Recover the amino acids of this structure.
């Protein structure tokens, strides 16, 4: 597997608390799932990759180059796009959300590609993003990422708070996107993660405690019970 | 009360609203976007007033004096943001303390340069006359302030609604971290927006001078308190809220001042207390 993103023994303090105590993972093509219970450190791991929190120790490398110490916007410009759950700017229209930080030409150039992947955008371009349903907001959040031509997508709980039928559509969209770019997926919905991901990492209390293929994990009830509280 | 008197008091209030809006809008946007409570905002306002006063005495050209007053405040704001605030990004308490320091520094600087006494700032002759609204007198300068406030409001509203920079400001007020993650260098956005807020404060100070016909070194603090009241009532970070807050307080002051001048300050504080009790985020503010 070609490693696109690599974390090695990353430690992060927030205030006086040592939140990440040793996170290691490698992301290659396809979808890699980052799993674990609440407050295991999954979102903090994504935030650390984006440079919101400085890593106290360890290495973070993207396409062989270190990201440590770079400001967030520089990390984003290398092609890593972070999508928190339903992350839209509520007061802006959908179109303004999508074109934010892009020039007109760049927006035009990617329009057809993004709309072909997420056709439901076409009818809602002028709506304020704050008025959309949760599922629509998640679609807009992912579309915003696609307009930036990501070389790696960090998806944080795309299913959070959504109805099952909506989750199904979001899952389809992610599968399509995964054909185009590697994705690191944080997900509490195990069924969705199993359906999408090839490899997995499990975090527990700020540490990587297990990794392997999703198929192995699905068969390992003991592991699921211990770290994911599901059987 | 006759209708004409009512109208004139309303217009007088509106001219106060225009000044409050110029003073407060930068404070509000800067807080919304950068989480910085800028205690030096009144001092920037005052700097604009003093620079404009000096230039007006030297040249007699009021439009030039106002523009230069605005740019002087903007320059001070830009320098402060780049040198003192940016290194402390993410530490709002430290940044607030830096702005307190900047306020004290600018106040003392004004005293060093211009002295502690009141200096007159006469009204520019073309705006010094009187007009009549339904036979009630209203000064031309108040009409000028209303027009200026309205034009600045419309320009800013259009800027926020229709320009790419405006969209970035709105997005940044909502979630600066997410904006960073979209590859936007918010550092540059912050600096420019801080400069814009300071510019508006400087213009506000420049046109405030002739309104009271003087400048003095206490100007900064009193306008800072007024601005805080406006922004608390309207909602920190909300552009529309700042406009609404200025409108309410300006007009309210005019009416209360007409009947019993001593009550205006009390009423401001009372209004603020009620808003804080009923809707702590301010009239049009969004809970953050």
């Amino acid at each position: 597997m070609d490693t696109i993103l690599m974390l090695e023994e990353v430690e992060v303090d927030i205030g006086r608390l040592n939140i990440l105590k040793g996170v290691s993972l490698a992301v290659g093509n396809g979808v890699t799932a980052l799993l674990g219970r609440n407050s295991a450190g999954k979102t903090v791991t994504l935030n650390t990759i984006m440079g919101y929190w400085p890593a106290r120790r360890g290495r973070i490398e993207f396409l062989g180059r270190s990201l440590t110490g770079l400001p967030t916007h520089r990390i984003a410009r290398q092609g890593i796009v972070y999508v928190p759950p339903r992350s839209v700017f509520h007061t802006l229209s959908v179109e303004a959300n999508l074109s934010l930080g892009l020039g007109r030409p760049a927006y035009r150039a990617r329009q057809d590609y993004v709309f072909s992947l997420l056709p439901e955008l076409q009818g809602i371009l002028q709506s304020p993003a704050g008025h959309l349903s949760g599922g629509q907001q998640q679609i807009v959040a992912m579309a915003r990422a696609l307009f930036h031509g990501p070389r790696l997508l960090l998806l944080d709980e795309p299913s959070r708070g959504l109805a099952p039928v909506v989750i199904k559509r979001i899952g389809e969209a992610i599968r399509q996107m995964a054909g185009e770019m590697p994705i690191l997926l944080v997900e509490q919905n195990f069924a969705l993660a199993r359906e999408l991901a090839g490899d997995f990492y499990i975090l527990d209390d700020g540490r990587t405690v297990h990794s392997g293929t999703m198929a192995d994990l699905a068969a390992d009830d003991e592991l699921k019970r211990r770290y994911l509280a599901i059987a | 009360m006759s209708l004409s008197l009512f109208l004139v008091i309303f217009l007088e209030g509106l001219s106060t609203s225009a000044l409050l809006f110029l003073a407060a809008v930068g404070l509000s946007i800067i807080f919304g976007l950068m989480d910085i409570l800028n205690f030096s905002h009144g001092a920037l306002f005052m700097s604009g007033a003093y620079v404009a006063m000096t230039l007006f005495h030297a040249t007699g050209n009021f439009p030039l004096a106002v523009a230069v007053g605005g740019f002087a405040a903007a320059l001070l704001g830009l320098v402060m943001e780049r040198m003192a605030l940016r290194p402390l990004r993410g530490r709002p308490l430290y940044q607030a303390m830096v702005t307190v320091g900047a306020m004290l520094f600018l106040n003392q600087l004004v005293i060093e340069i211009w002295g502690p006494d009141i200096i007159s700032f006469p009204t520019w002759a073309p705006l010094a006359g009187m007009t009549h609204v339904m036979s009630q007198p209203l000064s031309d300068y108040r009409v000028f302030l209303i027009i200026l406030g309205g034009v600045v409001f419309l320009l800013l509203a259009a800027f926020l609604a229709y320009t790419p920079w405006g969209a970035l400001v709105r997005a940044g007020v909502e979630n600066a971290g997410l904006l960073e993650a979209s590859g936007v260098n918010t550092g540059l956005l912050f600096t420019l927006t801080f400069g814009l807020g300071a510019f508006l404060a400087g213009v506000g100070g420049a046109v405030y001078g002739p309104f009271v016909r003087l400048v003095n070194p206490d100007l900064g603090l009193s306008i800072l308190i007024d601005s805080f009241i406006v922004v608390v009532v309207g909602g920190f970070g909300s552009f529309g809220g700042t406009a609404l807050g200025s409108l309410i307080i300006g007009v309210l002051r005019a009416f209360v001042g007409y009947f019993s001048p001593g009550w205006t300050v009390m009423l401001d504080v009372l209004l603020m207390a009620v808003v804080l009790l009923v809707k702590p985020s301010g009239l049009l503010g969004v809970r953050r």
In short: Chain A touches chain B through 22 residues (CB under 8 Å). The mean pLDDT of chain A is 92.
